Amino acid sequence: MVRAVPDTHGEILAAAARQFTVTGYRGTSLQDIAREVGCSKATVLYHFANKEALLAELMAPAIDVLRSLDDQLNGLTGAAAQEVAAQGFVDLAVRFRREIAVLRGEFPELLCQPAFAHIQQISDRLRDALAGHSDRPGARIAALVLLAGISEACAEFVDIPDDELRPALRTLARRAVEPVDAPLAHPPTTEDKDS
Amino acid sequence: MVRAVPDTHGEILAAAARQFTVTGYRGTSLQDIAREVGCSKATVLYHFANKEALLAELMAPAIDVLRSLDDQLNGLTGAAAQEVAAQGFVDLAVRFRREIAVLRGEFPELLCQPAFAHIQQISDRLRDALAGHSDRPGARIAALVLLAGISEACAEFVDIPDDELRPALRTLARRAVEPVDAPLAHPPTTEDKDS
DNA sequence: TCAGACCCTGACCGATCGGTCAGACTGAGG
DNA sequence: CCTCAGTCTGACCGATCGGTCAGGGTCTGA
C-alpha cells in the first residue's frame, strides 16, 4: 500500500480538537498536542502561526454557519424570528457539538481574540431574536437559559446520535421559549408595572 | 475611629472571589490576588495552604446548600421531586450567583479536586430528579438544559436583582420541565419504539 | 549536480506559574 | 528586658508555558 503523504497539518488539527474537547483550550499545551501527533512542538508551530491560529482554524466552519444563521435572522421579527433562531441554533449546536465543547467555559477569554471578534454580537442578536425582540426580563432570561443550556447539553451528550438529540432539543425549545405573539399562557402577575 | 484589626484573611477571600468571577480560577494567579489586596503573594500563601484551599473556602457555603438540597431530594420521586429540584436549584443558583460564575467552564477540571469530591454525584442526582427519574432522552436532555442554562443565566445576570431573576427562572423551569406524571402535552411521535 | 522549497527538530528564550523558606517586624505577657 | 507567637515579606525554586531560531533531511525541477 502506498503511504499517503503524511498530512501533518490535518493530524495536528484533529489531535488539537480531541485535546481541546477534553481539557479545554487553556488546559491543553502545544506539547500535549505534539505528543499525541508524535511530532515536536516546533512542528506544531511550523504548521500554525501560534496556538490561537490553531483554534481559529478549528472553529472556522462552526463560525461560518453561525454567521449565516445571523444573516438569515436579519429582518425577521416576532414569532418567526423566534422559530428560526431556535431551530437554527439547535441544528448548529447539534452539528458542531465538538466545537462547542472546546469553547465551553473559556468563552469570555476566547472572545477577546481577534478570530472571534464578532461572535459576541452575533450571539447577542441570536438571543434577542429568541426573546422575540422583547424587553421583558422573562423573555430575555428564557432565551439565555435556552442558548446556554442547549450548548451545554450538546457538549455533554457527545455520544447520543444526532437524530435523537435534535428532535428532543427542538421540542424543548418550542416549549421553553417565552411566547411573544400569542397571549401569555400564564396570567400576568402583579409585578407588571414597567412599560 | 479605631482601625479594626486588619482582616487580611477576609480581604484575600473577597479579592479572590472578585478575580475568580472575572477571569476564572485558572486565569487568576496568586500574584493577581495579592496585588488587589496590596500584600505579597507569600502572604496569600500564609493565610491559605494553597490556591485550591482558597477556592474551597470560597465555595463552601454554596456546597453546603447544594448538599442539603440533595438530602431534601432523597426519597422524593415523580412530580414532587421535579418540583423540589427545580425550585431548589433556582433558589440556590440565584443566591450563589457569584460562586457559579467562578466555576463557569472550569467545572470538569475543578471537580477533580478533593474539595469537590461529591459534587458530580450530587448534581447527577439533581438532574435525575429534575427528569422525574425517567429514562426518556427528552426528559434527561430537558433536565440538563435547564440546570446548565439556569447556572449560566445566574452567572451572567449578576446585576439583576434576585427578586426579578428568581420568579422568571421558576416560571421557566415549570414550563420547560418534561412532565412525568401527567400525560404528555405533545402527542407521541412515531419514534416510540424503545421501552 | 546543484539550488531551493518544504518539512521537521533540538536547543533555547523570557515570562509566569504555584509554592517554599529564612528572616524581619510587631505586640503582648512574664 | 527578654521571649515568643503571629504576621508578613523578598528572594528564590523547579516546572511549564508559548514561541523563536539555526540548521539538518528530503524531495523536485532545472
From TrEMBL, chains A, B:
Pfam families: TetR_N. Residues 6-66 form the HTH tetR-type domain. InterPro entries: Homeodomain-like_sf (IPR009057), HTH-type_TetR-like_transc_reg (IPR050109), HTH_TetR (IPR001647). Residues 29-48 bind DNA. The keyword DNA repair does not apply. One of its GO terms (molecular function) is DNA-binding transcription factor activity. Gene3D superfamilies: Tetracycline Repressor, domain 2. Keywords: DNA-binding, Transcription, Transcription regulation. This is TetR family transcriptional regulator. It comes from Micromonospora inaquosa.
